[in-house]
Amino acid sequence: MINLILFGPPGSGKGTQASKLVDKYSFLHISTGDLFRTEIGNNTPLGLEAKSYMDKGQLVPDSVTIGMLRNKVEANPDVKGYIFDGFPRTIPQCEALDELLAGRNDEISMLLMLDVPDDEIVSRLLNRGKTSGRADDLNEEVIRNRIAVYEEQTSPVFDYYAAKGRAKKINGLGSIDDIFERLSKEVDSLEK
Ligand code: AMP
In this structure, which residue's CA is closest to atom 6 in ligand 1? Predict the structure, then answer.
């Protein structure tokens, strides 16, 4: 089984690339951001709690996020592999994910980071806000906060997997197809 973490700052193209990887390799895409947005859409207590953090560009607490992720993985055991998008975002989330997979004699194959400079990210997110319908894409202050949270709390996730020799940076600039080709090459090399 190949289990990927698609990593990178908000607006680096994780969601776009994840859906193309799913089409090509038939992995199960798990985006914690999408799961939270579904909960919000369904007006669940979990959604209401998550919304109060998301609207400010803060992380939803680990206990909530990890529980939701675990349920999603456990509900889908028979898949070719997982693509985790937007998870893990903290070291406790890394540890919980590793433990969850180890319990099934499995592990993260590779973390692939889409490397995109800050300025490009702010303009991409503001642009996305015009059509995404996401409240957290509309306000520049919230966007800047999401980037700060990424740098402070989430970037250590790269080092966590790098220490295991399981993290690579991929140039996240260029056309969607160019970036997809770079990612596909990495996945193909894992399949061999
Ligand atoms: P995303 O769609 O990945 O950009 O996530 C949108 C928002 O959902 C984030 O800004 C966080 O508030 C929340 N979120 C998504 N994934 C996580 C996670 N792994 N840990 C904590 N909060 C998360």
Answer: 33
CA distances from 137 to 37, 79, 94, 102, 132 (A): 13, 32, 26, 35, 8
* Residue 166 is a catalytic residue: no
Which stretch of 31-35, 55-59, 116-120 has the lowest confidence by average pLDDT?
116-120
CA distance 70 to 86: 14
Confidence of residue 10 (pLDDT cuts 50, 70, 90): very high
From ligand 1's centre to the CA of 33, what distance in Å?
A: 5
Nearest CA to ligand 1 atom 1: 33
Ligand 1 geometric centre to CA of 110 (Å): 20
In the residue annotation, 146 being an active-site residue is answered as yes
Top CATH class of 2-116+154-191 equals: alpha beta
pTM tops 0.90: yes
- Active-site residue (options: 37, 56, 134, 168): 134
The tokens for 56 are 């400010």
Q: What is the pLDDT of residues 155-173, one digit of tens each?
A: 999 999 999 999 999 999 9
Dist CA 25 CA 14 (whole Å): 16
Decide: 28 and 82 in contact? Cβ < 8 Å.
Answer: yes
